[in-house]
Amino acid sequence: MAILLNRPTTLALTIALTLGLTACNDAQSKAEATAAAPAATNAAPDKAQAIAFIQDAEAQMAQLSIEANRAEWIYSNFITEDTAALSAAVGEKVSAASVNFATEAAKYANVELDPANARKLNILRSALVLPAPLDPAKNAELAQISSELNGLYGKGKYCFADGKCMTQPELSSLMAESRDPAKLLEAWKGWREIAKPMRPLFQREVELANEGAKDLGYANLSELWRSQYDMKPDEFSQELDRLWGQVKPLYESLHCYVRGELNNEYGDAIAPKTGPIPAHLLGNMWAQQWGNVYDLVAPDDADPGYDVTELLEQKGYDEHKMVKQAESFFTSLGFAPLPDSFWSRSLFLQPKDRDVVCHASAWDLDNLDDIRIKMCIQKTAEDFTVIHHELGHNFYQRAYKQQPFLFKNSANDGFHEAIGDTIALSITPSYLKQIGLLEDVPDASKDIGLLLKQALDKIAFLPFGLMIDQWRWKVFSGEITPAQYNQAWWELREKYQGVKAPTDRTEADFDPGAKYHVPGNVPYTRYFLAHILQFQFHKALCDTAGDKGPVHRCSIYGNQAAGEKLNKMLELGASQPWPVALKEVTGTEGMDAKAVLDYFAPLKIWLDEQNTAANRQCGW
Ligand code: X8Z
Ligand code: ZN
């Protein structure tokens, strides 16, 4: 469902701007949408008319978003035919409204407006993720397809030969924990079975949304998606290439090291010394974060000697306590505690009796205080971090709640994804000691182990974060045809990540669909940006906190000055171009990977030494 796709970003606005309607509602919404538009004369629209249109559109979108949020919340917490139909219906309604507003907004493009209204007009015009064609029948079809794709993912299960069936979080735990290549391969292949039926739906979704994008004056959906960064679409693509170029050497060193260690563990037949790494051996269903294989690749003499998953278990943390602990990090910075409704309305545990979308997400139901998370929490270090990630969304949403509806969003979508991760970078050994999880802080001789663990998640992620939309943008532009979906996917996986499918794949498969954000239609470049931005934020906030040590040992826990600075950026919402927001925290206006490289500088030296000493041929 269209709505769902925006869910993980939790942006009421983009959600609202993406949903769709029945023919009857469509007609009604069009009448409403045009109410404030210029009369049908030859006179050019004036400023007053433009402002009246913006106000009217903003009020209607605000109202619709609440209805859509509720329907979506219910659907993804209780996937049935009926909730799917309700979600598709509201999706259709919001989609028609937002497409009408976007079309109207284009008519005022030449009116000179104050910066705030000009910005709102541009948001109305371009902040759509799944634009429906103007034709109501096609809008209805798109809403239905979108809803169905989300349902297919949420309901997905794989049943092993012994009859045991597993949901996505259960299969992910297996991928994280098992070291049996045959078992890993079965789970890897099994989960991808759920995606096969998505292929024709996805293909049609792309056709329809491309038509919608064209109706709005964009070349295709790729151009629309890349138009949301306060710069021209092609400049944005170049900016991504530049950032990737900055971090690529570090990724290559990590890839080389990990491939060598996996070869030591599994041998040549399973994990070859050269070429791309088979995707089932990296501790993650999508080989996107590799922290779960830390034990296989840990340095002999620099292992910090603790594991957060074990610490959580030893100290009796349950799911609720994990969330409480994450909340207390934010309150230590000066943010107000989460409201009671957060605790009574969120979903923390996977229900046994019904299908839910388990992929973690944070929600803002009423664009004010009704914030929630929905997550099937596993009691692991990984999910402890994901909880911080989700709460980052919620605290952002609350910080910008005073903004007008169209500015209730992050500075760009990477910012929304970066906030909780920035906080999680402060989960250092000394922080763990402060909150009573760890007894002794390892000394500096163990830093390489800590940095390696962090790099397995953060650096390994970078090419994955990039390639998903490299694939999608080519699909949207027609450069990748439906007949090439799967092959092109693996070509990009290999090109960017140096990872390959562990078994033959054909066009009967649809491997992109096995990753939530593809059936969910959630843009993915935001996560790549977030993985750059979070290091810029962390460094700047550590400076504000007066930390003088190495940045990988800095925790801003309890530092109100850092909290105030962060809040200044968050409360701006989307009211300013993102460089202005970035400057609030970092003092600079550009995204840059230097902070990433500085953070991992000691590790880069160490990885290169190891690779040289083992005489490894790097690259793939
Ligand atoms: O989808 C998410 C969040 C919700 S916005 C859990 N993430 C991406 C993923 O899981 O693929 C966070 C990191 C990347
Ligand atoms: Zn997120």
UniProtKB/TrEMBL annotation:
Q: Which CDD domains match?
A: M2_ACE
Its domain of life reads Bacteria
InterPro entries, sorted = Peptidase_M2 (IPR001548)
Pfam families in the cross-refs: Peptidase_M2 (PF01401)
User: Transmembrane region positions?
Assistant: none
Q: Which UniProt keywords apply?
A: Disulfide bond, Glycoprotein, Signal
Q: Signal peptide position in this chain?
A: 1-23
Q: Does the keyword Glycoprotein apply?
A: yes
Q: Which Gene3D superfamilies match?
A: 1.10.1370.30
Q: Which SUPFAM superfamilies match?
A: Metalloproteases ('zincins'), catalytic domain
What is the protein name for this chain?
A: Peptidyl-dipeptidase a
UniProt organism field: Shewanella decolorationis S12
